[in-house]
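Re: weekly structure request thread

Next one in the queue (159 aa):
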Amino acid sequence: MAFKLRRVVTGHDRNGKAVVTFDSVPESIGPMRPGVTGCVAWTTDRVPADLGGDEDMGLRPVSTAHAGGTVFRIVEYRPGAAPRNHRTASIDYGVVISGEIDMELDDNVTVHLRAGDVLVQRGTIHNWINRGNVPCIIAFVLIDATPPAFGGKQLVPTG
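Done, posted below.
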């Protein structure tokens, strides 16, 4: 697997001194669908987050978002990865770390993103397509949000 990641998480010892709690390859790295590998680096149950405890919050099961909390996910999209149109009930901050990728919206608009580009995804239906010849790695922070309503109907997440 080409997707490699080192995760460093800090915390506190019993006396309140800053310490490294985790420094390793996350156990949560794995396939998400054909051509897509991902990792949940960390989650929180609420905002503001609880900064105590020693549990590895990257191992907690979450879907695309986490009700009342946050998800920090890193995803690798290989060229030709299986598509998946979806909408999340979250505001998503994305940073393209390497490679290039196209984001398709449901109005047939395609936005090409390159390494260093950032994205703020506000609960819109979207799809990620890697038309290049190298993997694209994106880091996402998803924060629970209330989907907008249009014409008296509230939009619902699809994945």
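Residues 30-146 form a domain with the Jelly Rolls fold (CATH 2.60.120.10). The mean pLDDT is 89.
Next request, please.
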